[in-house]
Design goal:
Blueprint (H helix, E strand, L loop, with lengths): L25 E10 L10 E11 L4 E11 L5 E8 L1 E8 L3 E3 L7 E4 L4 E3 L2 E5 L2 E10 L10 E6 L2 E7 L5 E8 L1 E8 L6 E7 L4 E8 L20
Parallel strand pairs: 1-8, 1-9, 10-16
Antiparallel strand pairs: 1-4, 2-3, 2-5, 5-7, 6-9, 10-13, 11-12, 11-14, 14-15
Length: 228
């Protein structure tokens, strides 16, 4: 399983972090993200640099110890300044767009005082919409506050919640196959694999199974078996 991220460069400087990085072993990663269709720069692309502990090319499986985040500006530029040396996986995410490169093509080794330039293009894929309702599978009661998440780059990203009538509407989903999950405390998690095409509006009604609850009772005594 993936380790939880412990560091984001947007919130804390790697040099002042308590995670044991060598203060002299830092480099930089920068680049430009553009649209493959017209070669124009793309702004507000989420760029993430995962510092890897492990990567299995055969099974396309990876684990990371920390990550750094950046967002492209209006010229499509991003910049990671003073991040620790090591092996990195870069990911590029923007709603409605898909990466033109495989994960293995976005693996890089950053050396001390090195500046890597990584430019990428994203395809415009289109947008889709998902709407529906969530109910208790036993009582049929509508469920408010259900978290709806989409799995992206093996991370669960919360994209919405059900309202007081159990209704949800998720817009601007990227086309393609998406894993959409529904979760609420005291209910079993539900996940669906859905295929979206450009302009799709899919309807999905979800029934969540309540978790079984029980009681534990007893008494506390001292070594002489006297109640405490």
């Amino acid at each position: 399983m993936l380790l939880y991220p412990i560091l984001q460069c947007t919130e804390i400087s790697a040099k002042s972090s308590p995670y044991g990085f060598n203060e002299e072993s830092f480099g930089e990663i920068k680049g430009t993200v553009s649209c493959w269709d017209d070669n124009l720069p793309l702004e507000k692309v989420d760029v993430t640099a995962y510092r890897l502990d492990f990567y299995d090319e055969k099974d396309n499986w990876w684990e990371y110890c920390c990550y750094f985040k950046a967002i492209t500006d209006n010229k499509g530029n991003y910049f990671f300044e003073e991040i620790p040396e090591g092996d990195y996986l870069l990911t590029f995410n923007k709603s409605g767009y898909i990466a033109s490169d495989s994960l293995s093509e976005n693996l890089f080794s950053l050396k001390t005082d090195e500046t890597l330039e990584v430019n990428r293009s994203l395809y415009f894929a289109g947008y889709a919409t998902l709407e529906g309702s969530v109910r208790d599978s036993h009582s049929g009661q509508v469920l408010e506050g259900v978290e709806i998440s989409v799995i992206q780059q093996r991370k669960s990203v919360i994209v919405g919640n059900t309202d007081s009538e159990g209704y949800f509407l998720i817009e601007d989903l990227t086309v393609g196959e998406q894993a959409v999950s529904f979760s609420l405390p005291n209910y079993h998690h539900a996940e669906y694999s859905l295929l979206f095409e450009d302009g799709d509006t899919k309807l999905l009604d979800v029934d969540l199974e309540p978790q079984k609850t029980g009681k534990i009772s007893g008494r506390v005594t001292n070594p002489e078996r006297e109640p405490i």
